[in-house]
Every structure is written in C-alpha cells, then in structure tokens.
Amino acid sequence: MGMIRGMRRKVVALCAGVAVVLTVGAGAVTQAQTPRTLVVAQSADIDTLDPARSTGLATVAVLANVYDTLVRRDAALHLKPGLALSWRAVDPTTWEFKLRKGVKFHDGEPFDAEAVKFSFDRMLDPQTHWAGAGALRLIKAVTVVDNDTVRITTSQPWPLLPRFLGYYGMIVPPGYLKQNGADALVRHAVGTGAYRFVSWAKDDRVELEANPDYWGGRPRISHVTFRVIPTDAPRVAELLAGSVQLAPLLPPELFTPLQTSPRTKLVVGKSLSVFFVIYNLVNIAKDKPLADPRVRQALNYAINRQAILTSVMHNVGTPVATFCSEVMDACDPSIPPFPYDPNKARALLREAGYPNGFDFTISGTNGTYPGDRDIVLAVAAQLNQIGVRTKVNVSEVGVQLKAVMDRKLPEDGWFTRFTDFFGISSIIPLRAFYSPGEWSQWRPGNGPFDQLVQEAQAAPSEAQLRDISRRLQLLYKDQAPAITLFTAPNANGMSRDLQWTPRPDLELTVGDASWSH
Amino acid sequence: MSEYLIRRMAFSLTAMLGVITIVFVLLHVSGDPATLLVTQDATRQDMERIRQAYGLDQPLAVQYGRFIARIARGDLGYSYRQGVPVTELIAGHIGATFELALASLAVAIVLGIALGMVAAVRRGSGIDTAAMTAALLGTSMPSFWVGLLLIIVFGVKLGWLPISGYGGVDHLILPAFVLGGFYAAQVSRLTRTSLLEVLAQDYIRTGHAKGLRDRVVLFKHALRNAALPILTMLGLSFGQMLGGAIVVETIFAWPGMGRLAVQAVLGRDFPVVQGAAIIGAAVFLAVNLMVDLVYGWVDPRLRGAAQRA
Prior knowledge:
The structure holds 2 protein chains of 2 kinds. Chain A is 32% helix and 21% strand. About 3% of the residues of chain A have low confidence. By secondary structure, chain A is an alpha+beta fold. In chain A, strand 6 and strand 7 form a beta hairpin. Chain B is mainly α. Chain B is built from 14 helices and no strands. In chain B, helix 7 crosses helix 8. Chain B starts with a helix and ends with a helix. At the A-B interface, helix 1, helix 7 and helix 13 of A face helix 2, helix 3, helix 5, helix 7 and helix 10 of B.
C-alpha cells in the first residue's frame, strides 16, 4: 500500500509539472499571436515553385504573388497593364505587346522581351509537359521585336489572347535558369512579383517577403506565410484563435462560427465556378426521355435553386441561367434563370409523353467540391417530387472523371462544377457542351450550338462576342444540355482587421492587402 | 544468430516484394493519372503525351518489369505531380513521422502501462473500473473526433496549445496525445491482463515471502515477466505509427508520411504511392525484427530458441 501512495505522489507531481509547462507555454503562444505576418491557410500544398510545372489551384494562388503575367486583372477581372504596358492587334493573327521598362527579377536580372520569349517557349514546349499548354495552343510563335516589344503570332485569329494572358503565362528569369539548370525553379522561385520567395517546407508552409522594388508599389504587409491545413474544421479553428488570418474556399457548414465570432468575418467574393447536372447524351437513343429537349427543360423547371442555396449553401451563391456567371465577360444578364415551376415541369413531361415520370440516375461526388453531396441529394429530392425517380451514385472524383472522358458514364446525369479562370462566357460551353470537347457528353450534339461556340472563340470584337454569346445562351436554354444550378461559393474567412478583396479567379495575391489598424 | 538474421532478411524481402506487387496492381487498376494531372482545357493529345512521358502507355508487364528493375537499383522514380525524386519527398516527410511516432509511443508506454499497472494492482476497486472505462473510451472514440474536441478546448477556447502544423514541442503535444492515447488504451488493457496473470504466480508469492519490497516485486519481477505480449503490441503499434498516422496527420496538418501517401493516392501519383508503400513495409518489417530481437533480451529462455530457429 506504501507503493500506491508513492505512485499517487508521483502522479500529483507530474500533473503539477504539466500545469507549469502549459502556463508558460500559453504565454509564449499569446505573444506570438500579434503578427504583422499575414498567415494564410489553404487546404492543399503547392505542387511546385515553377509555374511551368503545374496549373493546380493551390499552386497558382501562391505563385501569383511571386511571378507576374503580361496582363493583369483587377478584382472585377478588368484587364490592366501587367508586365506589358499596352497591347494591340497588328493583324488578325499577330498581337504586339509593349513591355514595362526598368523591371528586375528578384535575383537582379533585368526583365525584357527575351525573358518573355524564353518563358513562353519554355511553357509551351511539349517536353515541359505543362498542363496549361492546351489552353494556349493557338500560339504559334513569340518573337522579340526590340528590348521592350514582343509579338505573339497565332495559328488562327485569337482576339481573346490578352484575356488568357491575364491568368496564364507567368514570366520566369532566363539567366537564373541557364545558370542553375532547368529544374532550378522547382524548389526556389524567382520572379518579378510583389513578394520574394523565402522558403518552402513541404506540406507545411511557404514563406514570402515583400519585394521593396516591386513595379506595382511595395506591398503593405511585409511577410506572408501560406500554410497547409487539409481539414476544414482545424483551419476554421485557427481563424477563430487568430493564428491564421485568411482562409479561402470554406465550406458552407462552417460559415456560422466565423460570422458570429467578434474576431473574424466571412467575406464572399464573386465566382467563376458553376454547378451543373450535365445530361449524359452520348449517342442517346431517340426514344429515351433525355433525347427530348422538353424533358431536359422540364427537369430545369423542377429545381428550386434558391431553396438549395438557402438551406445547403447558407445563402452563398446565385442561380445561373445558362453557363456563365455575372462576372464573366459577355454574359448576358437579361437572360433569366429557369424559374422554379413544378407545374410547368410536369406539363412538359406530359407533353413529351412521360406523364408518370421516368427513372434517372446521377453520378455525384462527396467532398470534391464544398457542399457537393448535399446539393446533389437536394436536387434528387426535388426531381422525385415531379415524378422523376432519381437515384444518386456517389463515387470518387478520379473514377468519375475517367468514365466521363472515356464517354462510358453509366449514369444519366453528371453532377460537377466547371470553372473558367479566364472569365469569358464562351469557355465553359467550349469545355462542357461543345461536341468535340474532351469533357462533352453531348455527342453527336447540336450543329448550330457547336457552330456558335466556334464563332465565339474567334469573335473579332467585344460587341460581336456579346452578340454571339447571347445567341448561344438562348440556344442553350432551348436545348438544355444540362440542369444549370448556381455559382459555387467563393467564401473566405478573415480576421476582422484584414482588408482584402477576394478574387473571382481565386488567386491569393495579397500585395494590396493591409491591416485596418 | 547471423543465420537467423539472414533468414529473417530473406523473409522480409519476399514480404516486401509481395507488398510492392499488390500496390502496383491496385494502383494501375484504380485509374488513370493523366486525367488528374491536367486541367479542363486538356486535349486527348495532352493526356497521351503525359502517359507516354511516364511510360503508362506500355503493357502492364513491361511497366512492372521496369519498375522492379528501378527499385533494385534504389531508384524510386520521380513524382508525377511535383517532378522531384520520390526519395527526396520521402526524406522530407519521414522525419516528421518519426517525431510524431516516437512522441506517441512515449505516451502509449507511459500512459498505457501506468494505467494498466494501477488497474491490476488495485484490481476490483473503483480505480480499476475507472481505468478500464477510460481505456474502453480511448479505444472506441474515433481519433478525428477526439482530435477536433481537443483542438476546440485547448486551441480555441483556452488558447494553451497550437491548433495544427509543425513546430516545436508544443505543436507535438495534441497530435501525440491523440495518436498515443489510442494505443495507450489498448496497451493498458493488455498490461492489466498480463500483469494479473503474472501476479497470481507462485514466484511472486515467493518474492513477497522473501521480504522484497512491493515495488521491487512489481517492477523487477512481475512487469518483466508480463512484458512479452505488451512488447509485441507496442512493436506493432509503433510500426503502424511509422507507416503514417493518416487521420492524426491530416487533422493536425502534420507533414508526415501519412499525408504524403494519401495525397499521392488521391492524385494517382503512382511513383510516390509505390515509394511510400515500400518504405512503410520496410519500416514495419524492421520494427518487427527489432521486437523479436528485444524478446531475446527480455526473456533469456527465448535467446536459445532464436538461435536454434
């Protein structure tokens, strides 16, 4: 029994020791929480520090602070001078860019036309395997005219090129790469951007410091850390505790604590992402329900988009009429979304010969997009109410995408989210609905629709693009190749004293961020 | 002894080859990395080019042959997603895993054995019931739930500990407690059972009769005899912890092998998955070998058996 008393004494001593450590530790923690360093938390790490090696969202979001593109976009996605001061079309297949003078890379190397040519040649070289090369495949050649002038020739007229260069085409330092090898940027970033690279601890954090000589003006926040916190709840916990001051792309179920805490705020930005349930129309037989456009429209009338937004998405998001969100260029705001009209839905089904509805399956995911599972289940429930007996098959996104690409999707509908980082209304139709497109489930498709999509890519003027886009949207509503839902949320948790506007393209450029006190 | 070691190494290598082959087959059946490595603008050609670059367009047998040949040379290949050598990625993550595993093992040993001993010595009392209830809760409560609970209490409400991430000792406390606590629960129950069995033996009564102090009887004689099954469990647990405590690493943003492996699986980054599987298997087998050797030290009766085996 003496032994037990002895043990009890030891336990008490241990507890006392722990208490001391925690108290001292607490003091240390509180001191570290008055930062002038901005700590941003993403759910994934960057893939690489070399912009020609990845197009991953988490990667571009961070690298946009270290590297610049020729064209810049503001928070409303209007084109502004970037590394290029101005640009004009010399002829239908040649664009000329006048470059900014006196810009230096972070290693002191001068920025000039040679650097631009080098960067584009490198990123479009098939040996580089850059995943973004496909988007810029119309670029035929980049030529140096003089030190501050560059010409880009395209294989066919491409009036939208400057818009694409507002997102893609980060400029890298040729001298640095020649001296340190082709892989030198993978682990150490050197660009012309607002922030200089300091360090990268994989799966942990990236540290950046302000570039005092930045051509766009010295950033107000001198140090930025991009941390990786994969699970949503701990990321929000860090915001509430103040150890993280910005966390983008939060899921709807975690909005409330951020809205109620006095320390944080929830800021919603505009979105370039749209949720759809895309119909599987691959070689569909004429007698199948979905082969009839009236049926395809009917399902659109059956969905109460606002109800789903209110209940599942905590009121973050707006219903979309066709395939473009309000912030995309040439998206006609006068075309209204399908209203919620279950009677009209049933009437259309009766007209098409399905008074008793039909069976419908949707392929969905769980955790790929914030809110995905709950949205698709809500859609299924609403379709069931008009007699369309809907089943949802949840699968892993890799498996789903492979089936879609191979055009072997077993389900009748594909719930997914399309994003257009270039902000042009004709991009999503090109990717999702244009019959020859890689992801298209509309084959053989609709001739006039395909024709309009092609014209949109080469529309010579803004006015003509708007006109073609409008016709495309009206045709889309008529043919309804998908159930269009609403925009995906761009919800950001922030410290109350952080001043920063979330971007629709989800880049986390914090050069213009500041503290309010 | 060396013959024993050689035989164990041969067995270990065969086991590893089996693991590697199974992982290889599962990976290639699971899906196409190219679809996940590209953006939505990609064309069929872009993806074909990627497949060709990584040799994924070759027949499976050819890919397997090349793969085994490279492993034999010690070349684990390059990550599809990051373009850096797999060995570099693993080297960058394994340190964190070791740190967390060692800290968790310490928690499992101290907490588990202490709890089990107290319960055994005070068998049938309120302390015994309390300890075993705690153990039951520790085994049943899912680690992500416990982790999030502790984060809310100690991280947000009290602000005593950091919530997530890699850093000093204070960053290690919560994840080590969650990971170690789970194994501590199991260790405590086994310690109690094993110790109770030993405490009922004749030689324990002899020890008391000889006038030895309770503490000496308990630690020097009883615990040492009860140690074998506890060692086995600790060894297995440690091996599992080193393989990558996926859930704990993900909740606490701990940059270890578990995170590396999971991301690689979801992104179909084949070389990284295969590399992680190889390292995980190797570490597990090494730990098992060490446990067998430690057996010999703990129980002299087994030394001869190991040599004869």
